[in-house]
Structure formats: structure tokens, C-alpha cells
Design brief:
The chain is mainly α. The chain is built from 7 helices and 4 strands. Helices cover 32% and strands 5% of the residues.
């Protein structure tokens, strides 16, 4: 299925939140956002103009319990033998027993039970769910976290905006938006983040950075002048890393 991203100005640098939601949802034809995208796109026009949300948290439960033991129980049926259901704060919605606390707040939850996929392979299905697109050998699509960081203005904080805690073997990527939108990967949150503590004191680290600048300037003299008009991804990554280490 061919899908084109509709941008307001005809470029990939400017597209609305409504267009994003429609595109990410429709592109997968049954991807994780399909039923929600159209509802959010329509609801946005009538939603109160309050303070917008600035963060998104995605809980990726790889290998978690099935829908029959969580959000879509079928008590009394052969496919869910032994499953019991409980009432929730949302009329007509039942959850599996054991989710009593969740049942109390279901009035504020959007529950999607119609997600389907043609992908049987775990790697391809994970890609589909995280990007809204089925894998394509000609392009790497950005994850939803990368798209959000691309569209929202930089908050000016010194910590990474796109973070993945305990990523699996298929971490969130920036795709065609650029490697600068890749998720900053953190292992066990109870441990220290590696490579953010300098091994030398501030004075010595400063001298090292000055020496690096000398080498980079010498290298830059052999490059095309137009490339020096904007900062390279290498230089931007270095500066962001130094901000994290000194913050």
C-alpha cells in the first residue's frame, strides 16, 4: 500500500499534528494507532484549548500477558478458559480480574481492541507497532518518539528528549528524520549511565577539547565551504554529550 505524507507546505519539515496522527495510523492498515488516529484528528478541532501535553510515555510490554488476561477478557468462552472479568468505571467495558485499580480509572482511558496485523515475525511486528509502518527495505521509518521530538520545539534542557529505558533488540530510531532523533538508550535504571562521567578533571578535559578543536579546524579547511555554514551531526552530537556530562 503506497502512503504519502501530506504536508502543509509540500515538504517533510512541516506537517500538522492532525496529519501526523492520520498518516501514522492509516499507513499501517491495522497498526497500533489506526483506530485512535482518526478519533484524535477529529477531536482536536473541538478540544478545549488548554495547556497541551508535552510528553508521551510508551510502555513496551514485549512478551507480556495476552489481551484475554488483561484488557479484553472473554469469560465463559473456550478461547479464554478460566478467565474472569470485572466491571469498570466505563459502562459496558470489562477487564480481566486482577486489574481492579485500572478498572477504577477506565473512564479516562482510550481502549482499542481492534488492532490487527499481517506480521507474524516478532521483529517485523515490533517495527510495525513502533512506527506505524510495515518494514520496507528502502527506508527506515522514525518511531513515534522521534516524530514527536522532531515536531515539538526544543525545550532547551540539557538531557536527551527521546529516552528509551531497557530497550530491546529493536530500539526506537530516528529513521529518515536523522540519527539525532534516535532514542538515548538507558540500561538498568538502578545503575549508573555509562560514559557520562569524565575520567579527567575539568581542567584536563578542557585542554583535551581545545586540542580536538585544533584538529577539527584543520580538517574543516579541506571541506566544501557550504558544509561549514551549518553544524555537522558529529559536532552537534559532541556538544550535546558535553552538556550532559557537565549538567
Amino acid at each position: 500500500m503506497n502512503t504519502t505524507l501530506e504536508c502543509g507546505c509540500g515538504t517533510a519539515d512541516h506537517f500538522s499534528r492532525r496529519t501526523l496522527l492520520k498518516t501514522v495510523g492509516v499507513a499501517g492498515v491495522g497498526a497500533w494507532l489506526t483506530p485512535v488516529a482518526q478519533l484524535l484528528a477529529r477531536a482536536e478541532e473541538f478540544a478545549p484549548k488548554g495547556k497541551p501535553a508535552r510528553s508521551v510515555i510508551i510502555l513496551w510490554l514485549g512478551g507480556g500477558p495476552s489481551q484475554l488476561e488483561t484488557f479484553d477478557p472473554h469469560p465463559g468462552s473456550r478461547i479464554a478458559y478460566g478467565t474472569t472479568a470485572i466491571r469498570t468505571a466505563a459502562a459496558g467495558i470489562q477487564l480481566a480480574a486482577g486489574l481492579e485499580a485500572m478498572a477504577e480509572v477506565m473512564g479516562d482511558v482510550s481502549l482499542v481492541r481492534s488492532v490487527v496485523s499481517k506480521e507474524a515475525d516478532h521483529e517485523r511486528a515490533a517495527y510495525n507497532m513502533k512506527t506505524g509502518y510495515r518494514p520496507n527495505p528502502t527506508v527506515v521509518h522514525p518511531s513515534i518518539g522521534a516524530v514527536i521530538c522532531h515536531e515539538l520545539q526544543d525545550a532547551g534542557v540539557d538531557i536527551p528528549r527521546h529516552i528509551s529505558i531497557l530497550p530491546d533488540q529493536w530500539p526506537a530510531r530516528g529513521g529518515y528524520l536523522g540519527a539525532q532523533f534516535d532514542a538515548f538508550q538507558i540500561g538498568d535504571p538502578q545503575g549508573r549511565i555509562p560514559d557520562v562521567t569524565a575520567r579527567a578533571d575539568d581542567a584536563r578535559s578542557g585542554r583535551r577539547m581545545e586540542d580536538l578543536s585544533v584538529v577539527e579546524r584543520a580538517f574543516a579547511r579541506g571541506r566544501r565551504p557550504d558544509l561549514e555554514e551549518r553544524i555537522t551531526l558529529h559536532q552537534a552530537s559532541m556538544r550535546e554529550a558535553m552538556k550532559i556530562m557537565s549538567s
